[in-house]
Automatic annotation (TrEMBL), chain A:
Domain AAA+ ATPase residue range list: 28-203
Gene3D superfamilies: Magnesium chelatase subunit I, C-Terminal domain, P-loop containing nucleotide triphosphate hydrolases
The UniProt record lists the keyword Ligase: yes
EC number: 6.6.1.1
Record bears the keyword Calcium: no
Organism name: Rhodobacter ferrooxidans
The name this protein goes by in its record: Mg-protoporphyrin IX chelatase
Role, per record: Involved in bacteriochlorophyll biosynthesis; introduces a magnesium ion into protoporphyrin IX to yield Mg-protoporphyrin IX.
Domain of life: Bacteria
InterPro entries named in the record: AAA+_ATPase (IPR003593), CHLI-like (IPR045006), ChlI/MoxR_AAA_lid (IPR041628), Mg_chelatase_ATPase-isu (IPR011775), Mg_chelatse_chII-like_cat_dom (IPR000523), P-loop_NTPase (IPR027417)
UniProtKB/TrEMBL annotation, chain B:
Residue stretches of biased makeup (Acidic residues): 235-246
InterPro entries in UniProt: ChlI/MoxR_AAA_lid, Mg-chelatase_DI-like, P-loop_NTPase
PANTHER family: CHELATASE-RELATED (PTHR35023), MG-PROTOPORPHYRIN IX CHELATASE (PTHR35023:SF1)
Protein name per the record: Magnesium chelatase subunit D
Disordered: region residues: 233-254
UniProt xrefs under Gene3D superfamilies: Magnesium chelatase subunit I, C-Terminal domain
Domain ChlI/MoxR AAA lid: 178-245
Length: 334, 254
């Protein structure tokens, strides 16, 4: 299959699609975690996201997609100063991946054939300025999680192995998907995801039939299907670009900042990251809708995704985190 | 349908469209009955590759061939099992670690290949990981089949080839898609992969019957082979199914 399933053709799953669009508008929100049942199109949505992302300009031949020639790491010996546009990288981090493939390692090929000590960049280098996608993120080995947490925090990958000592920029947006039945995520890792969404299989039969119809058309009548939906994807991509431009001009009133803080205090969410993400996500959705300023309605629209994975466990409250966020929303932001 | 006839039907459909059906979950202890079925995998139109649950990444994806590289002085890469389209036979699939299941699952999603999981699980909950079983269309359990029932499975290769050629030209009426999706929902099957696999099974069945449109016998066979093991126990149904709506066991194809 050469082309991924078009994003616009995904039926339902409004919250998941909204979260993906928001992270495309403002990568600073910090990625999306999609948790839910099997066969609900989690990985389909992530793969489709790649087609929506605006292109980046990078130095030709730079292994870490540097934006300026002077940013290219020394070890890469990039001589070109030509800028090229390329698709925003969306890199898969497979389960059971070894540390050397993630951080990079000694280039065995060159060591064996030319006796040179050179660095072969890993997945983190390729993901710089892009997205790093982990399917079944809750099954990822602990030592890889530790490594990712550190790099995601510092934005820099430091490699000390096999006599190499190098560093390079590794700023990426984490996108993960998984099935909660198979294990929980450590709170430190949860916190690195800006937004989290829960997807369930659609209960309504008509919706299910429509899903199957579109998927079947995608597989068996690919050409016509893609022609129809590619146009919608292009429109969506233009809307994302427009929202990116509108973002800096957006007005955020004191009242909205106050609402953010009040909501996070009422929910007892850990740290300040919740507030910051909530505000950024609200700004992104306001820009996407073409609003002049952020309002309470925008906060309400993004609060569940921005906060549900940051709640402290309350032993006296049996309700799920989605229910708790919804309940607090009606109390604090009537 | 008798268990052995069911196994034969599953094998036939898999041999017609392995890529569409994604594979077979075969639950059976090692023995002559299972051997009879696995011997017939040669009817599949894909090269057979066998692997065990502990297979390493360089075997799956290839890597630098150390000996050849040192000998020739330039980098030589070895090819991995998953580099080409294949029918992968996964032995002792009940021992498959989640990482391998996800890798095989992602490989299956790219289409063109299939996985046959040989599950020797002793206990009911000892099964291959769910990311894998959710993607494999067919399920066959050979536990209760006696050696005398397991007759020879010789399939007609010319007829299989003809069915494969016909596959691209089979039309699926919209109602057929709808019926299969509704049936899956009624049986409490949450995953939306199941109806798609059932559509593929119905198409393969129509191709085998040498007709050009999917019809009722194809739907019955597809529902039996794809849904039976996925359906929730009756108590957990969303809505109680109307009594007359369960498809009776369909006749074996061919």
């Amino acid at each position: 299959m050469t082309q991924p399933f078009p994003f616009s053709a995904i039926v339902g799953q409004a919250e998941m699609k909204q979260a993906m669009v928001l992270t495309a508008i403002d990568p600073g929100i910090g990625g999306v975690l999609v948790f839910g049942d099997r066969g609900t199109g989690k990985s389909t949505a992530v793969r489709a996201l790649a087609a929506l992302l605006p292109e980046i300009t990078a130095v030709e031949g730079c292994p870490v997609n540097s934006a300026k020639p002077e940013d290219c790491p020394e070890w890469a010996h990039v001589r070109s100063t030509k800028m090229v546009t390329r698709a925003t990288p969306v890199i898969d981090l497979p389960l059971g991946v070894t540390e050397d493939r993630v951080v990079g390692a000694l280039d065995i090929e060159r060591a064996l054939t030319r006796g040179e000590k050179a660095f072969e960049p890993g997945l983190l280098a390729r993901a710089n300025r892009g997205y790093l996608y982990i399917d079944e993120v809750n099954l990822l080995e602990d030592h890889i999680v530790d490594l990712l947490l550190d790099v995601a925090q510092s934005g820099e990958n430091v490699v000390e192995r096999e006599g190499l000592s190098i560093r390079h920029a590794a700023r990426f947006v984490l996108v993960g998907s998984g099935n909660p039945e198979e294990g929980e995520l450590r709170p430190q890792l949860l916190d690195r995801f800006g937004l989290s969404v829960e997807v369930t299989s659609p209960r309504d039969v008509e919706t299910r039939v429509e899903v199957i119809r579109r998927r079947d058309a995608f597989e068996n009548d690919n050409e016509n299907f893609m022609k129809k939906w590619r146009r919608k994807d292009t429109d969506l991509r233009k809307a994302i670009l427009a929202a990116r431009e509108a973002l800096p001009k957006l007005v955020t009133t004191e009242a909205v900042l106050h609402d953010c803080a009040a909501l996070c205090i009422a929910l007892g969410s850990d740290g300040l990251r919740g507030e910051l993400t909530l505000l950024r996500a609200a700004r992104a959705i306001a820009a996407f809708e073409g609003a002049a300023e952020v309002t309470r309605a925008h906060l309400r629209a993004v609060a569940p995704s921005a906060l549900r994975h940051r709640l402290r466990r309350d032993p006296l409250d049996e309700a799920g985190s989605t229910v708790r966020v919804a309940r607090t929303l009606t109390e604090v932001l009537p | 349908m008798a268990p052995w006839a069911r196994a034969k039907a599953a094998l036939t459909l898999l041999a017609i469209d392995p890529a569409g059906l994604r594979g077979l979950w075969l639950r059976a202890r090692s023995g002559p009955v299972r051997d009879r079925l696995t011997a017939a995998f040669t009817h599949l139109p894909l090269p057979l590759r066998r692997m065990h649950p502990g297979v390493a990444d360089d075997a799956l994806y290839g890597g630098v061939d150390l000996a050849a590289t040192l000998a020739s002085g330039h980098a030589v890469r070895a090819r991995g099992i998953l580099d080409a389209r294949a029918a992968v036979v996964l032995a002792m699939a009940e021992r498959c670690p989640p990482g391998l299941a996800v890798r095989l699952g992602q490989w299956l999603d790219t289409r063109g290949s299939c996985v046959i999981a040989l599950d020797e699980g002793a206990e009911a909950d000892e099964t291959p990981p769910h990311p894998l079983t959710d993607r494999l269309g067919l399920f066959v359990d050979l536990s209760d089949i006696a050696w005398s029932e397991a007759t020879d499975l010789a399939l007609d290769d010319t007829k299989l080839a003809a069915a494969r050629e016909r596959l691209d030209y089979i039309t699926t009426p919209p109602e057929a898609l709808e019926t299969l999706t509704r049936l899956a929902a009624r049986l409490g099957i949450a995953s939306l992969r199941a109806p798609l696999l059932a559509v593929a099974a119905a198409r393969a069945s129509a191709a085998w019957r040498a007709v050009d449109t999917v019809a009722e016998p194809d739907l019955r066979l597809a529902a039996d082979l794809i849904y039976a093991h996925r359906a929730l126990p009756e108590a957990e149904y969303d809505q109680p199914p109307p009594e007359d709506d369960t498809p009776p066991p369909p006749p074996p194809p061919g």
